[in-house]
Structures are given as C-alpha cells and as structure tokens.
Amino acid sequence: SAGSDTDQVIIPNIPMIAAMAKLKNSSSLIKIALLSILQVFNQKPFVKLSVKKILWGYHNPLIKLGNDILPRDERFPFDKFGILIGKNGSTSGKFKIHSGVDNLSNLGEIMSFRGKDKLDVWSGDQCNAIRGTDGTIFPPGFAKNKTLYVFSPDLCQSLPLVFEKEIITNDIPGYRYIPPSNVFSGPAKNPRNKCFCDEKNKCMAQDGLMNISPCQYNSPIIISWPHFYQANPNLLNEVEGLNPESRKTSVLHRHSTETRKWLARR
C-alpha cells in the first residue's frame, strides 16, 4: 500500500459488536445493562482510528471488562484489540510435524497442534480434522492432480488447494494451486461444509462467505477470499472497487517441477 500507518480510517467497532452478539440471547435485564455500559464507555457503532491502531491494537474498555468478568477460556488473550495483534512474529501455537525420515511423502505433515491431533471447535470430525502442512513445506514428488491441504490456525480449518495450471516464473517451471470454487460454499454445494454450521453458528446464505465465529472467541466474524473471489457475484454489487481475479486474489503456490522446491506462497 502507498498509504501511511498514520492514516485515519473509519471501521466498525468490533469489540462493541462482539459484546452485543455474545449477549443477543440474554434476558432483557442483561441487554439493558449492556446498553448502559456502552453509554458509560461512550461506545459508538463506528470508530475512527489510525491504520496502525487498527492493525496492532488500541485500548477499548470493553476488552478489559470482558476479561474481568468472562470465564478464563472465553477471555480475549490481549489487553488491547487489533486485527493483527499477536501476529507480528509470534507463534500461534506449537506444531508437531513429520520429519519425513521414515517416509518422505509425509514430510511436513502436521501430527498435532497445541498438543491435540484434532480441533474441538466445530460440530463434526471432518471439520475438526487437522490435515496437510502449515504451508511452509510440502513433501516432494507428488502428482500435480493431488489435492494439497494447508492448515490455518486463524481459520481453525484445513484449506484444500487444487492444481490450476503449469506456469513459468523467471524461466523456472512450476505449478499454480488455487482453492476449489466451493471451499466457502454452503452445504447445498459443498456437503463437507455442513459441520461448520449448527444452531448457534448459522450457514451463510451467500456462497463464498463463511462464519468462523467459533474460531474467533465467538465474535461475529465472516470471511471470504480477497475481493469476494469465488463468491456470489451479487456481493460485488454492494462494494465499489473490487476486482476478483484469480491471479491476484487466490491462494497461490508455485512449485518447481525440476527441483521439487516450493518457491512462493501468497
């Protein structure tokens, strides 16, 4: 970006929205109390902040209040709120991976994450399965039509990548992998995604969007590929300036067909 991290941007007040979403099914008395708290803390639906604060954190009194009264396993693990807080070089958890010593085809495969061989976030074993690698290394010599999996702790799921086409970058031949078009589709188009939905975590009505609230401290977080790539075209009508091109917005892997080394990842 050509902008500065001091640029001021207006964004939704995510801590406020998260608090309201968490208590949406509470009694009227609790809701009235929450409204009083929001007024005392001068909370508004939108806030104007610098890009630096949005990304790396700013103090919001709702974070401290939540961490004071919520059960330990539901608390936000920082005293500030930021989109990328805790991501600047810090680990998201300990991985145990295959070394490939006994079987090179298992090189980089994740055996466990944070001491567990599967997640306990979603309503089904398939969605909770930890598959593939962390995206930094893959086993050599696989067939290009093999589906690859990259586990993302931030999304609490393993994302598939499929071969798109052969490419040449700086005279080096390789493969380009992209996510299948139904990765973020509802169960009607992708039955495998059914276990990402339940009574509390509703499936999205539009293809190309996924509700990952259970993965993000039950905050109302919905994800898509950049620029609504592979999403319902109707979504593009709601936002100006989007350009959902595969080359620019997809998850991208380039693999040298000669050296079997992974050259790039986006």
From TrEMBL:
Subcellular location as annotated: Cell membrane; Membrane, Caveola
GO CC annotation terms, alphabetical: caveola; cytoplasm
Membrane topology: Multi-pass membrane protein
Predominant place of localization: membrane
InterPro entries: CD36/SCARB1/SNMP1, CD36_fam
Keywords of the record: Cell membrane, Disulfide bond, Glycoprotein, Membrane, Receptor, Transmembrane, Transmembrane helix
Any single Pfam family the record assigns to this protein: CD36
Family: Belongs to the CD36 family.
UniProt protein name: Scavenger receptor class B member 1
Source organism (scientific name): Lepeophtheirus salmonis (Salmon louse)
